[in-house]
Design brief:
Layout lengths: L1 H25 L4 E15 L8 E13 L4 E15 L19 E17 L5 E17 L12 E12 L3 E10 L13 E12 L1
Antiparallel strand pairs: 1-2, 1-8, 2-3, 3-4, 4-5, 5-6, 6-7, 7-8
Length: 206
């Protein structure tokens, strides 16, 4: 009888130990928060712009609400910097806006608020598919070779974002693709300017 009780005790102890390890490795709290930063590889497409991406930075904070083992939502607030370079072809540039000169570039600073649907991939809950909309409010625009101080970009931009989020016990990292849905041209309707970006980041989750 004593041997049987010993075996039962060992089995229960082993089961509890395994369950504790599983929870500590894969369990997610309902609420988490954190911060992240990284690179924003962006471009603005349009008749007046050079091809190719520009390297800038991004940083922000986020909240996570994990409603189930599969789904959650993640609102964020991010500072995102983008830049662009205009074409050197004078026929592609609004001559009534820019002075003569070789430097015709722009730098835009946004306060961006995305809202993601998180979908866990696999059983470990470490890899999340993220999709959702984002709104970016333009807080500063700096344009070289501008004849006047008027704004040439719209003050807000809607975009769609999708990507992967890897959640380690403390560290998070991931990559996203952002497609701009708003025509950024605030001058007229002769040209359509739209943005796109690849965002790569690393951060901490608490």
């Amino acid at each position: 009888m004593q041997k049987l009780l010993t075996v039962i005790f060992l089995l229960i102890s082993t089961s509890l130990f395994a369950q504790r390890n599983k929870l500590s490795g894969d369990h997610e709290n309902f609420f988490r928060f954190g911060a992240k930063g990284g690179v924003n590889i962006n471009k603005i497409s349009g008749q007046s712009y050079k091809d190719g991406f520009n390297y800038n930075f991004q940083a922000g904070a986020f909240l996570q609400f994990n409603f189930s083992n599969r789904f959650g939502i993640q609102p964020e607030v991010n500072f995102v910097q983008t830049s662009s370079e205009f074409s050197n072809d004078a026929s592609d540039i609004y001559d009534d806006i820019f002075r003569d000169g070789s430097q015709k570039s722009a730098k835009l600073n946004y306060l961006e608020v995305p809202l993601f649907l998180n979908i866990n991939i696999g059983e470990s809950k470490r890899v999340k598919l993220q999709v959702g909309p984002a709104y970016g409010g333009l807080i500063k625009q700096t344009v070289d070779s501008l004849k006047n101080n008027g704004d040439i970009y719209k003050n807000g931009e809607w975009s769609a974002i999708g990507g992967l989020w890897i959640q380690l016990p403390l560290v998070n990292l991931g990559a996203r693709y952002k497609l701009g849905l708003t025509d950024l041209n605030a001058i007229d309707t002769r040209q359509s300017w739209k943005s796109q970006a690849i965002q790569v980041f690393i951060g901490l989750t608490f």
